[in-house]
Design goal:
With about 140 residues, the protein is of the alpha/beta class. It has one domain: 3-Layer(aba) Sandwich (Rossmann fold). It is built from six helices and four strands; from the N terminus they run ααβαβαβαβα.
């Protein structure tokens, strides 16, 4: 992820956490514009951390990354306040697009490989908050 971001001058990496609790602490200290966070982290996982971060910092955008594309995990990520769901297998091709969609366009981003029915249900669930366009 660092090499992808380092190759793009529009994005600057300002911190890195090893677990959900560190992510919450770093967020409080650095107040980033966007957080890219793994769902599977030791201690507090990415979904729990996203929920806590969005509660105290609703303006910060969150993109969750994972190996898994199950419908319930995708729904849980968005219910926790994530604006993006990126599969790690697609990160090299899709990370910058996900960042642009979530931060610059204020849209939800869901990896292209996620099942269309899951995407539709997530979009329908989130249509009341102004984020109705899939990436």
């Amino acid at each position: 992820m660092q090499s992808i971001l380092n190759g793009s001058p529009e994005w600057e990496l300002c911190g890195e956490a090893n677990n959900g609790n560190e992510a919450i602490e770093l967020t409080d200290a650095l107040l980033p514009e966007v957080i890219i966070m793994d769902i599977s982290m030791p201690g507090r996982n990415g979904i729990e951390a996203a929920r806590m971060i969005r509660k105290s910092h609703p303006q910060i955008k969150i993109i969750l990354m994972t190996l898994h594309e199950t419908g319930e995990l995708v729904r849980s990520a968005f219910r926790a306040g994530a604006q993006g769901y990126l599969l790690k297998a697609e990160a090299e091709q899709e990370l910058l697009r996900a960042l642009r969609e979530v931060v610059e366009e204020d849209h939800l981003y869901i990896s292209p490989r996620v099942d269309h029915e899951v995407v539709s249900s997530v979009l329908q669930e989130n249509s009341g908050n102004g984020h109705s366009r899939p990436a």
